[in-house]
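> forwarded from #structure-qc
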């Protein structure tokens, strides 16, 4: 048998493609990526000593992986099973943990903890952690869901998402909603500022100085916001906000407003106002689907960056802070980008409904 170091190394198209993928992917183990580079370099021609110098590895390393590849092809580059400590946890014990986690609860509790499960099955707490991690089980975690019962769910999703992804020409599209009952709060003790090693600290209790409501209309194309702070969010206030939007939008543009199903948005006074302003059209999200309204994403930014840690001694101070936030936002506004089309959303809702309908609960 000839010397493998001198035997020509020829790759098939599939082998070369696989090796190149191993080199390119960040998820590939470092050792496997190096072996793939060695084989590719050998296939390009040249003696092993030249390949070793080019890749800055030992010549023996090139000899070994070249020979392994010639003997077993791609399988020869993968690590062989290594000896280790025999398993002390059997498959039956693992199955018992998974079944108990999914189908039972401990006495007097609503879900398992690692300590409760370890005591119930006779394993260590760390073993329970590893088993749960391997099977993606998180008994401590919970999520809420609400499926819309709107009979026009599909039509409304297509309507709203269509405005995001393919807005009509010569038109402005706004996402409109109100953030009610914004509280003007001050803490019962002064806020302790952040110092190295210690975050900012605030007292848990607070003093309330009244509330205001914020109407907001987010322009989906520019990201700019038209805002109006009021003492309440009655129908008359919403009509006044519609008039504000109508005044600020160019007269030669049609106006499409995406709203939720609040009764204020469908009141007779609003319908009368729409009859006198034919260029304005309202589009409604499905019930229980406020996530479909992009202005909710802007409200989240407002809450996180201005309200959560703000202290306001009066509603006037809170109103000034909200108006200043809107002005600063519009100075460097960027639109939120909607990425999923209507069919993807409808399919996802269908898959989720099928999943919860076929569950064992």
């Amino acid at each position: 048998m000839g010397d493998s170091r001198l035997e020509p190394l020829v790759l098939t198209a599939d082998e070369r493609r696989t090796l190149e993928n191993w080199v390119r992917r960040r998820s590939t183990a470092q050792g496997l990526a190096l072996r793939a580079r060695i084989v590719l370099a050998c296939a390009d021609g040249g003696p092993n000593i030249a390949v070793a110098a080019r890749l800055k590895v030992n010549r023996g390393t090139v000899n070994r992986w070249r020979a392994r590849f010639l003997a077993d092809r791609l399988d020869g580059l993968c690590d062989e099973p290594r000896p280790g400590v025999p398993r002390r946890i059997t498959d039956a014990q693992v199955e018992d943990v998974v079944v108990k986690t999914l189908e039972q609860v401990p006495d007097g509790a609503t879900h398992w903890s690692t300590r409760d499960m370890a005591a119930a099955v006779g394993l260590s707490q760390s073993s329970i952690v590893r088993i749960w991690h391997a099977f993606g089980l998180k008994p401590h975690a919970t999520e809420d869901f609400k499926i819309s019962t709107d009979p026009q769910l599909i039509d409304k999703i297509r309507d709203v998402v269509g405005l995001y992804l393919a807005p009509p020409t010569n038109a402005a599209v706004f996402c409109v909603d109100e953030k009610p009952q914004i509280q003007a709060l001050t803490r019962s003790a002064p806020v302790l500022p952040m110092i190295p090693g210690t975050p900012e600290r605030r007292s848990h209790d607070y003093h309330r100085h009244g509330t205001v409501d914020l109407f907001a209309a987010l322009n989906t194309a520019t990201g700019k916001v038209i805002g109006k702070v009021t003492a309440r969010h009655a129908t008359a206030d919403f009509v006044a906000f519609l008039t504000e939007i109508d005044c600020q939008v160019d007269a030669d543009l049609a106006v499409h407003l995406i709203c939720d199903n609040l009764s204020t948005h469908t009141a007779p006074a609003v319908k009368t106002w729409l009859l006198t302003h034919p260029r304005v059209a309202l589009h409604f999200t499905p019930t229980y689907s406020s996530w479909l309204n992009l202005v909710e994403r802007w409200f989240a930014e407002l809450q996180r960056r201005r309200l959560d840690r703000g202290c306001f001694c009066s509603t006037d101070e809170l109103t000034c802070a909200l108006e200043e936030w809107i002005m600063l936002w519009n100075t460097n506004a960027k639109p939120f980008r909607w990425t999923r089309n209507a069919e993807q959303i409808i399919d996802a809702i269908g898959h989720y409904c099928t999943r919860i309908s076929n569950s064992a609960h």
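QC bot note: The mean pLDDT is 88. Strands lie at 171-187, 206-219, 225-230, 254-259, 280-284.
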